[in-house]
Amino acid sequence: MGVFKKVKNYWPLIKSLQTALLVLTGLAGYVSARCPVNNLTIIAGLIGSLFLTVSGSTILNMVWDRDIDAKMKRTSHRPLPQGHIDAGEAWKVGLGISILGLAWAATLDVLFAVVVFAGLFIDVVIYTIWLKRRTAWSILWGGISGGMPILAGRVLGMGSIDEIGILFMVGILFWIPTHILTFSIKYADDYAAADIPTFPSTHGVNQTRLIVAASSLFSAVSILVSGILLDLTMGYLRLIVVLAIGLTGMAIGTIFNASERINLGLFKYASLFMMTSMFMVILGAR
User: Fold this and answer.
1) What is the pLDDT of residues 72-96, one digit of tens each?
2) Rounded CA gap, 144 and 125, in Å?
3) Is the pTM of this model over 0.85?
4) In 11-39, where does DSSP find H-type helix?
5) Distance from C-alpha of 70 to C-alpha of 74, rounded to nearest angstrom
6) How far is CA 156 from each of CA 161, 165, 198, 200, rounded to the nearest angstrom?
7) pLDDT at 174 over 60
8) What whole-number distance in Å separates Cα of residue 239 and Cα of residue 176?
9) What is the per-residue pLDDT for 262?
10) Treating both helix axes as pointing N-terminal to C-terminal, what angle do 205-229 and 163-186 enclose, rounded to 10 degrees?
11) Which of 4, 32, 146, 281 has the fewest CB atoms nearer than 10 Å to its CB?
């Protein structure tokens, strides 16, 4: 198999958009410490180590979940269920680039590497291998894992874990349910076919929408308070406020209007909210 085709087959395994968003949060965490962004060695190390570690953990998750992916229409076309990539090879690649990313992180700062490792361990071992097939509450651990890159970035900039880093992590933790639960409502039949417990299947769609609304509010408040503590200028804070009102408003709106269009709109807007908020932190903290 040629190198181009190999890369083409592996690219979907890293979930590039999701990985890019997590790396962006890590960069925002670092810049929030008002560290010099012209240190290309540190910036390249931050981005590179996070990209490799997040990509590696995602590949490992894909290998472990290949059997349930084969049962869901949404994921059955992925390279592993289709047999385009050998599972043993993918496992080695995922483990290899994860180790490479962690080693790179360790050259920058030991505590930074520890936080990055914690994110990988929680994501692969606790969330995917241990809890995902057992309980819908596994998404809490997925949320904690998702919050590790921004905490790691903040740690790299500050040299320690502080309250703003924790608030950032909490913001991501509560953002994850908005992102995932709207998805699990839309693809409820797929998750049922794969026998994966989700909040819609175990607690009902109405209660799930209440959880989404509450988590959206907590996420928005956490990100906004972080911005206030960072002393961002009012222009950037105002935009975060507008985005936060939009997120919570749409989430509350799904309680009263259960249409698939509104649900899908919230799913897409949640990503826009997080991405734009991170850019506001990066621009406002410089």
Assistant:
1) 999 999 999 999 999 999 999 999 9
2) 13
3) yes
4) 16-31
5) 9
6) 9, 11, 35, 38
7) yes
8) 21
9) 85
10) 150
11) 4
Crossing angle for the helix pair 40-64 and 87-108, to the nearest 10 degrees: 150
Task: Read off φ and ψ for residue 187, nearest 5 degrees.
Answer: -110, 40
Give the whole-angstrom CA distance, residue 206 versus residue 198. 13
Cα(218)–Cα(220) distance, rounded to whole angstroms?
Answer: 6
What is the CA 239 to chain-centroid distance, rounded?
22
Sequence-distant (≥ 6) Cβ neighbours of residue 34 within 8 angstroms: 157, 285, 286
Owner of token pair 């590039």: 16
Q: Which residues of 241-277 are buried (b: 16+ CB within 10 A; e: fewer)?
A: eebbebbbebbbbbeeeeeeebbeebbebbeebbbeb
- Distances from the Cα of 183 to the Cαs of 59, 100, 188, in angstroms? 20, 32, 8
Query: What residues contact 28, with CB distance under 8 A and at least 6 apart?
Result: 150, 153, 168, 278, 279, 281, 282
Summarize pLDDT for 155-169 with one digit per residue, the tens. 999 999 999 999 999
- Total count of residues recorded for the chain: 286
Location of structure tokens 């905490």: 151
pLDDT at 186 over 70: yes
Question: Using CA atoms, how far apart are residues 81 and 65, in angstroms rounded to an integer?
Answer: 9
Q: Residue 13's pLDDT band (boundaries 50, 70, 90)?
A: very high
What are residue 195's phi and psi, to 5 degrees? Answer: 60, 40
